[in-house]
Design brief:
By secondary structure, the protein is α+β, with helices and mostly antiparallel strands. A 6-stranded antiparallel sheet has the order 8-7-6-5-11-12. A 4-stranded antiparallel sheet has the order 1-4-2-3, covered by helices on one side. The radius of gyration is 19 Å and the shape is elongated. The two termini are 25 Å apart.
Length: 235
Amino acid sequence: MPELEKFRGSIRDWILAARERGIDLDRLDSDKQEDARNLEKSGLPIYDSFRCLYIEFTETNKLLSEFIARYNGFVVRALPLPHRKDLQRKPKIGLCSFRECREFLKRAVEGNEQDYSVLISEWGPQDYGGILISGDRYIFGEIGRGLDTLSFGHETPLASFEIDRAKVGHLENKTEWKCKEDKRAKNFLWKALYYIKKGSDNFDPYFIRGYFEFVVTETEKIRFVDFKDNERYLV
């Protein structure tokens, strides 16, 4: 099997690089719009967001203008429509106005204006970013200074754990902390876990299954920013 170049990036980057070399990683791909809808339906705390086709991202779009007027910062994602799996997703964090969003999107979709939709979400400064992977038996969690640096492998976690639900005892007895020196980060990671825990049973609780990404804002609020229920992400 051909080998991929060693580089760090999103799962979408790896999928496209693999495809160019004849390697099929499409089973790991997910529809970002579908992920966003699943996140909205999950009941988890999330950022407010707005979506439309790229050609609808105009100053005359009243709903879009009202959304942008409510917040001071944004994450903007140019997302290929389902029939264009050959195109890349293109996100930009920290934009502050319609003009900045529009200028980024114009460059991002140039030549493929009819083939992109836009997902724009509120954004603000963050203290931490974390990941939870919840399967039938095992649950993994880690937290770092930044979600991108953590998820792309550029950062060693400040705190991380592994839960083996087959063990006997309370949830705490089933949890093995891999690192926990940063107590503040550890506490936020544990708090994030409890958002995907349902019910009061502390012996064999039910957890939402899936892959989750979250951030901790400067005001110490946890916001989930990604949720994938693709079986290939689970253990």
